[in-house]
Structure to design on (1260 residues):
């Protein structure tokens, strides 16, 4: 793209702009908490069950709850139809990222000897799956009423055509870009996940991190609004 | 606002995918007009009151469509064209159609004075349009341009009703639609003609109107789909066309024929079918019966030129009476086969015919207007078609339309090709700019730089902004010592040619207690200043190398770095990258290490000064004794290298003494080599080899190395045959055997013979090349000439970019904590870089040679000299003579020409061969019939000593058929061959001999590189 002349990215955004985010909670009545989140064309559904009794006795921790994350990518989620096995290493890795991200944030000691299940379903994929999963999980956990120290807001950033940009879409991601995903606790600005799989010049790292952090803060605004709207809505329904 | 874009796409593997993209529309895209109050832009590009053109009464902004950029880029680049709105739609289409033009548009946008503004109409809420049902993408884009023009018109109307927006398009249909929408639309032609400026008028690319009534000369090219299917099925062969430098109607491609690599000849105008040198073409093999034998002849295509000239004349006369629009030339009579009759060899070479052009390689060409093609009276400013000769003889003549034909005669000009329709014998082009008077030194220097694609513009401000802020006052600071060794106390000295200001290497030696020596090579630490990826680095990477011309130097790095901060001058502290060995008494490496360092050179010597110090027994200071030790070690190193089979080759290099003020050459001498040259060279070779091993160890996949492939034996065939006559055998199976046979090839009666043989052996060699270690197998790393298994360039980072990369890799190899990007590890990028460096290097060499040639011509101006020379190459109807004293070469033709008769179409005008080529002996011999075993009366063969007369043709300004290309004239004095030889200076009026030499188009000696390549191809 003619990045330097018009300062716009391939889809018309500026470097520090997120895609259009839409999110709702409480979309599945069966689950204890659920959320649906769209980062542009990346669409994720999250369902939280628990805290409930642990399935396997052997895994039970006597002082705290265990987190269990399962991630699934729909075969129809990308341009080419492709079925992934449940044991796809890529998916297992991503699930474990999500798990690691939330372990320090969920106050698990409140729920000893129990298990919290987080099921994630990627319905459409257009870049930034991990960030969308983390954000959806945050919303679903809040919806389930599970105690957490803060929101967890995730955002990607990368070096696209000689410039740092956030929330990369699939095209930007796939043109050999170095991409960082970070997940942040917006109140304390603490980072619970920073993940990068390609090489990035050390001089550029700081700029990319800074932008990603800003992206997380923007993300927080959106997510917080969703939760507050939802709460207001609920309150209204209860008074009626 | 959000739109989805969805479309189907076919992947490389043939799958059909649906791609869904987001497309955001914005409210914050501004108009960028200076006085606009509504928009919130900070740095407006478009001036409030743009220029006025006679075609409109009001000041206006121009909105061009895609084809304007594609076809009329030269016009758009003219300084008269400003205040242009480049729509995003247009920019993307340009990018899709032509990357070089896209780059040029981007350059214009970056140029503040041009006031080109990119308007992102596709992301603007008011100008985005959806594709309608049944609307083609082209129609949709045209409509997008109209919508954007309309939006701008309305937007500006509120601002200043006196300013308007004009859409520029050459598509009449689009113009009509625009007019119907109430927009102003105009064609380039109309707009430019209203500007009333001859220069810009000439730059306008000619319209591609094809008149059906015209006779077509060429076969149609096949469609791209047809061609690519044909190549897949093996019906057609693909290759890059290389035109012979002796004959622009003969080309060849190197490709795989039935699985075997080989050359396909393409001979003649109709077989070449409008392909130009460097084009990627698709070729169909001709039936075997039409295959030909190797013709390496020089062609003088008299008839065809004559006919063309007449047609031009007729046309110009017609044009004078009634100025026609876009006149296309009348066709001359049927064409004669241009090539010289050839001798039949046993194995005919495959011949082919161009069926399609896959990618054009058209660029801008330097050259001049053929005086003969101008027939209008002087002072006329009516547009006429004239013929243009490119300086490069491989390029066909180009027909251009100009209004300033007389003003341009005798000048060097630049021309671009626009198109080559089937009905036109020559490609049609347009004038770009004039460089200056032919024969003028600065003009000719510019020509040779342009012709060799040497970037010689000044360094931009952006590049200079990466220089140290301290400028000339930069000094080594205490913090620079971090990670560096302090070698300031060592007796380091540098040895370079006189007048050298970019000193990139220095040496030291310290005798150690154990009897060994510590030897250090210190190289300027350029990478301390040039950081990867910044603009200065990119510029250096693109320039690739410093180019040395006779009277000037085109730097790779800004001179503050090259001749000052990096240059290891004496008695100042400088940063260096050092290679330190421990060598034993026999100059064998005990150990080696590399380190960044700080040095303070004690002396910068010339080769001569260093030599004098060695020889002067009175000098006993530390530096001098150091040089003596180094000299001793260097001799041992050299001996060992020679024993390993390193070659000592030779080239006839000359050096000019220039007059101080005018820089005109006053004397020529051969470059002299001293022992100290070899001293420095030995240690540089040693450093390069040591560094190569180190970086290959660290970066097995991406190290930048240099190899020199073994020459194929075909290259030696002719030479072997020629020296066999003297009872000498050349064994080139390894460099060792070659080196030995060269040493033994001495003729006592001819002292120059050995040198000559070495010069000619050099020409049989392959080019040494940079490569990325991951791209070749280890056996091919070998450097044949130096007889080493691995080699790289480390020692001249000021003037070669390869060395800069090697410095970075070496630094990464010795400092594991160093952070580096993928520029050092990415195999593909490294490969691309090597490709560019090889190209730049080759071009730099050729430019340097052309510069020498230019100065030779200046030197011989108004001089006529008789010199001894040697025959170094035999062609079909000519031979090439080398003059050792001046290192120049010239062609002498082996055929006399019958004076032109009245009816020029007659065969009598064909040159009559006096000597003919004998393929068995590779000789030119007289034509009398011979009895068995009898030697011909006169013959010319390789290595033969001849006397020639050298002079400069005064007719520099064109007029003759070769016009300005004819420069250095060489005429044979001895042996006397009737019809070819001339009498000496005393007897200059010999009419026949004079007619013979001055009428022909001579090859300039500097093109020997091309000749070599052409020679190789035909032999392969």
């Amino acid at each position: 793209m003619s990045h330097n002349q018009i300062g716009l990215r391939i889809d018309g955004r500026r470097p520090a702009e997120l895609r259009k985010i839409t999110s709702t909670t409480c979309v599945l009545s069966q689950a204890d908490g659920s959320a649906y989140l769209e980062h542009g064309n990346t669409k994720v559904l999250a369902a939280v069950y628990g805290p409930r009794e642990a399935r396997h006795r052997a895994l039970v921790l006597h002082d705290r709850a265990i987190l269990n994350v399962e991630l699934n990518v729909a075969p129809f989620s990308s341009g080419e139809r492709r079925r992934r096995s449940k044991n796809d290493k890529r998916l297992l890795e991503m699930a474990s990222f999500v798990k690691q991200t939330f372990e320090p944030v969920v106050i698990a000691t409140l729920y000893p000897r129990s298990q919290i299940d987080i099921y994630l379903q990627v319905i459409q994929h257009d870049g930034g799956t991990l960030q969308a999963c983390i954000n959806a999980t945050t919303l679903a956990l809040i919806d389930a009423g599970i105690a957490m120290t803060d929101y967890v807001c995730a955002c990607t950033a990368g070096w696209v055509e000689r410039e740092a940009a956030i929330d990369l879409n699939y095209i930007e991601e796939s043109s050999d870009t170095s991409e960082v995903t970070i997940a942040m606790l917006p109140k304390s600005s603490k980072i619970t996940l920073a993940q990068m799989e390609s090489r990035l010049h050390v001089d550029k790292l700081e700029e990319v991190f800074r932008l990603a952090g800003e992206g997380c803060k923007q993300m927080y605004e959106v997510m917080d609004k969703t939760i507050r709207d939802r709460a207001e809505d609920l309150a209204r329904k209860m008074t009626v | 606002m959000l739109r989805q874009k969805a479309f189907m796409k076919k992947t490389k593997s043939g799958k059909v995918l649906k791609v869904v993209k987001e497309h955001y529309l914005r409210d914050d895209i501004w108009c960028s007009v200076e006085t606009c109050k509504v928009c919130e832009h900070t740095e407006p590009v478009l001036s409030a009151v743009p220029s006025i053109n006679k075609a409109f009464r009001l000041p206006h902004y121009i909105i061009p469509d895609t084809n304007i950029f594609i076809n009329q880029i030269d016009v758009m680049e003219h300084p008269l064209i400003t205040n242009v709105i480049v729509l995003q739609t247009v920019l993307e289409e340009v990018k899709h159609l032509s990357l070089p033009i896209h780059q040029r548009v981007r350059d214009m946008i970056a140029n503040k004075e041009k006031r080109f503004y990119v308007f992102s109409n596709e992301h603007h809420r008011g100008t985005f349009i959806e594709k309608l049902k049944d609307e083609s993408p082209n129609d949709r884009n045209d409509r997008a341009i109209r919508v954007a023009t309309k939006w701008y018109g309305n937007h500006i109307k509120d601002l200043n009703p006196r300013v308007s927006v004009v859409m520029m398009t050459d598509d009449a249909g689009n113009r009509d639609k625009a007019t119907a929408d109430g927009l102003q639309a105009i064609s380039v032609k109309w707009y430019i003609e209203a500007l009333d400026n001859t220069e810009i008028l000439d730059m306008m690319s000619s319209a591609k109107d094809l008149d059906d009534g015209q006779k077509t000369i060429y076969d149609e090219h096949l469609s791209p789909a047809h061609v690519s299917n044909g190549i897949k099925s093996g019906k057609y062969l693909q290759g890059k066309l290389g035109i012979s430098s002796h004959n622009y109607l003969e080309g060849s491609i190197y490709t795989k024929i039935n699985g075997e690599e080989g050359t396909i000849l393409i001979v003649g105008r109709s077989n070449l079918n409008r392909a130009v040198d460097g084009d990627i073409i698709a070729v169909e093999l001709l039936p075997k019966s039409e295959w030909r034998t190797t013709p390496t002849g020089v062609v003088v295509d008299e008839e065809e030129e004559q006919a063309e000239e007449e047609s031009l004349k007729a046309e110009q006369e017609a044009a004078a009476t009634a100025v026609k629009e876009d006149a296309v030339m009348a066709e001359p009579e049927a064409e004669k086969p241009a090539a010289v009759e050839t001798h039949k060899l046993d194995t005919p070479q495959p011949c082919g015919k161009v069926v399609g052009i896959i990618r054009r390689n058209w660029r801008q060409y330097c050259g001049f207007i053929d005086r003969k093609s101008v027939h209008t009276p002087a002072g006329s400013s009516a547009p006429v078609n004239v013929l243009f000769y490119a300086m490069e003889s491989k390029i066909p003549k180009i027909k251009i339309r100009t209004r300033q034909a007389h003003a341009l005669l005798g000048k060097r000009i630049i021309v671009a090709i626009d198109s080559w329709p089937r009905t036109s014998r020559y490609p049609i082009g347009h004038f770009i700019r004039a460089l200056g008077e032919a024969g003028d030194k600065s003009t000719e220097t510019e020509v040779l730089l342009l012709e060799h694609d040497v970037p010689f513009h000044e360094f931009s401000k952006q590049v200079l902004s990466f220089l140290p802020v301290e400028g000339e006052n930069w000094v080594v600071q205490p913090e620079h010592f971090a990670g560096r060794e302090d070698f300031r106390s060592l007796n380091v000295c540098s040895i370079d040619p006189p007048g050298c200001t970019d000193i990139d290497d220095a040496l030291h030696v310290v005798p150690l207690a154990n009897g060994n020596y510590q030897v250090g090579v210190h190289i300027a630490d350029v990478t301390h200043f040039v950081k990867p990826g910044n603009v200065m680095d990119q510029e250096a990477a693109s320039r690739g190398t410093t180019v040395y011309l006779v009277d000037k130097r085109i730097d790779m790095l800004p001179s503050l770095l090259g001749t000052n901060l990096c240059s290891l001058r004496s008695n100042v502290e400088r940063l260096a990258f050092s290679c330190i060995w421990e060598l034993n008494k026999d100059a064998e490496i005990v150990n080696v290490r590399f380190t960044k360092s700080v040095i303070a050179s004690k002396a910068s010597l010339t080769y001569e000064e260093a030599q004098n110090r060695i020889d002067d027994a009175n000098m006993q200071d530390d530096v001098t004794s150091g040089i003596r030790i180094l000299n001793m070690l260097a001799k041992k190193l050299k001996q060992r290298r020679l024993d390993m089979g390193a070659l000592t080759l030779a080239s006839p290099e000359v050096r000019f003494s220039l007059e101080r003020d005018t820089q005109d050459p006053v004397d020529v001498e051969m470059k002299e080599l001293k022992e100290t040259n070899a001293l420095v060279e030995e240690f540089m070779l040693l450093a390069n080899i040591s560094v190569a091993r180190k970086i290959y160890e660290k970066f097995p996949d991406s190290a930048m190395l240099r190899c020199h492939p073994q020459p194929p034996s075909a290259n030696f065939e002719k030479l072997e045959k020629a020296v066999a006559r003297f009872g000498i055998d050349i064994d080139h199976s390894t460099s060792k055997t070659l080196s030995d046979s060269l040493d033994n090839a001495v003729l006592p009666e001819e002292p120059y013979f050995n040198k000559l043989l070495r010069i000619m052996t050099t020409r049989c060699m392959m080019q040494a090349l940079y490569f990325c270690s991951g791209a070749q197998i280890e056996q091919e790393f070998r450097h044949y000439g130096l007889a080493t298994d691995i080699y790289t360039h480390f020692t001249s980072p000021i003037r070669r970019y390869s060395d800069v990369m090697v410095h970075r890799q070496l630094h990464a190899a010795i400092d594991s904590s160093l952070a580096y990007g993928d520029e050092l590890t990415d195999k593909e990028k490294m490969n691309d870089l090597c490709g560019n460096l090889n190209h730049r290097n080759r071009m730099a060499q050729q430019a340097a040679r052309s510069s020498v040639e230019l100065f030779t011509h200046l030197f011989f101006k108004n001089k006529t000299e008789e010199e001894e020379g040697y025959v170094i190459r035999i062609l079909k109807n000519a031979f090439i003579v080398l003059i050792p004293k001046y290192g120049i070469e010239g062609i002498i033709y082996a055929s006399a020409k019958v004076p032109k008769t009245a009816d020029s179409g007659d065969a009598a005008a064909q040159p009559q061969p006096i000597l003919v080529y004998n393929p068995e002996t590779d000789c030119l011999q007289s034509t009398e019939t011979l009895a068995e075993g009898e030697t011909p009366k006169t013959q010319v063969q390789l290595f033969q000593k001849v006397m020639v007369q050298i002079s400069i043709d005064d007719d520099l300004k064109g007029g003759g058929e070769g016009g300005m290309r004819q420069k250095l004239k060489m005429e044979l004095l001895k042996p006397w061959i009737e019809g070819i030889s001339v009498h000496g200076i005393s007897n200059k009026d010999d009419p026949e001999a004079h007619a013979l030499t001055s009428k022909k188009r001579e090859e300039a000696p500097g093109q020997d590189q091309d000749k070599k390549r052409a020679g190789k191809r035909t032999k392969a």
